[in-house]
Amino acid sequence: MRRQASNGFLLCLIDGDGYLFDGSLISHGARGGGEAANRLLNSIKHHLQQYEGAVHWKIIIRVYANIEGLLKKFAYIGFTEEEKGLRQFVAGFTQSQPLFDFVDAGQGKERADHKIKEQLNLFVNNIQCRHIMLGVAHDNGYVPTLDPYKNDPNVASRISLLEPGQIGREFYGLPFEVVHFDSLFRTAELPNERPPYKLSNSLIHTAKPLAQPSAPSNQQRQTLTHPPWARSPIYPGPVLLNKDDERVDEYLGTPSDSAEASLKSRITNGNKLCNVHHLLWRCNAGLRCPYSHEPTLEGKELIAFALKARLTPLHHVDPRVDHEVTESEGDTNPY
Description:
- The protein is of the alpha/beta class.
- The chain is 34% helix and 11% strand.
- It has helices at 2-7, 23-26, 29-47, 67-77, 80-96, 111-123, 143-146, 153-156, 218-225, 257-266, 275-280, 299-309; strands spanning 9-15, 58-65, 100-104, 129-135, 159-162, 177-179, 240-241, 247-248.
- Strand 7 and strand 8 form a beta hairpin.
- The N and C termini lie far apart (77 Å).
């Protein structure tokens, strides 16, 4: 029995496409990967203190993700530091501990899912596998895989779920323990939209020095959760003020004559453009929207459009106090 206890292990399986490590870790490459691995290891060891004999268990961690897909996503939404650091982060995580692996599952939405499901089914009845910790609770597609084990108390007590930013609805009511680890994973999904236009270098996200894990403040959560380029009530961003505490718009530059002419050609014959879609990428009206969405404005055309939208009068707010008004939100839609 003593020999069995010493050979026991905990298996932690994480869907790295849904459980993204915090950007402040990824952006630091190999060093951030090693730091993430150590934080996860220490958090699991602390959690295992409640289990008798767990001090002797080995800890095996396997993260599966579509690395190429994540790189494309980071590039698309403007997370340049994460894009630069991801591959080295993966290497640093894997190299930090002999039983830790961050695996590129290949391209395809279900690649990581398939590997995790097969690993779970392989180890759940292994007598040496004393506990399984799963980072899958973001995706309701894993629930059918867990269903066969929920009514067996001997198995259910050996499975726990890592808590992401948001738990899938179908996970509620399952008998598995839910575990939360601070300062490891993003608390919100990546945005689906790209930045409406490039901000000045002073406002673009940059990597910050690694710090010891601690419970983030509300302000820190906001910084980690939302992209720095977004300027809407959904994605609060930095607000520029003058010396009188009045809101001022960031300088976008001067659009070229060709961009002005191209934009003008778009709005001829009554083809008005949707400010909310082109500037904030969050128009919820869909097909009911009376304004044009396609093709989406880009580059100099988009800057020209943003500058014209800023001329829209705002009769219903006081710009000296309402600092969250964006250039897209006016009383009219003249374009």
